[in-house]
C-alpha cells in the first residue's frame, strides 16, 4: 500500500478569509497549511524514494553477497555488473525531487530536524554505494601480486577510488552528534568505514587522502560523546585508538 498523495487546499483546511477581512488570520492559516503541506510532501517523496532505493539495494546485496568474500577474487566478472548498478544509483541521485535533496556540506550544529528525511535518503545512497564498492576495496586491500596490472583497467581503478571516497565521506558526514532514530546505524557505519580506511592505509596498495587520520580522530571523538549511553562504545573507541597508533607508526616507518 502506498500512502495517499499530499492533500490539496480545501474549504475544510481553514484557508478562508474571515468575514471582517482579517488578513492576518488568513495569513496564519495559510502559514499553518503551508508547513503541513511541506511536511506531507517530504514524507510522500521519502516513502517512494525509499521503496525504489531499497529495490536497487536488494539487487546489489543479492548479486555481491549471496556467497562469501572468496567470490570477490574473480573481480573481472564483477566490474560490468558494478558499473551498471553505479549508473542506476547515479540516475536516482541526480533526479531526486527537491524535497529529498540534501546539502552534504552541512555538519554538526548546522543540522536541523527539518532536514532529517533528506539526510536519511542521502545516507541510504551512501550505504548503497558502500555495499557496491566493498568487494573492490576488499580486492585492493588483499591482492598484492596482481593489483598493479589490474589497476591498468580504468573501470576497476574507478570503482576502487569511488569506494575509498565513499568510506571517507561516511567517516566525515555521519559523525553528527545529533540524536535521531538512526543513530546506532550511523555509529556502526562510521566504525566500519574507519576500519576500511585504516585497512587501505595498512595495505599501501592505494593512495589515500593525507588527512585520513584526522577523520578517524573525529570518529573517536563521536564515540567518546556517546559512550556514557552505550558502554560497548568504550571498547570500540579503544580499538580504533590502538589501530590509529599502529597505522601512524606504520606510515612513519614507510617514510624513512
From TrEMBL:
Top-level taxon of origin: Eukaryota
InterPro entries to which the protein is assigned, alphabetical: EcdB-like_regulator
Name by which UniProt lists this protein: Transcription factor domain-containing protein
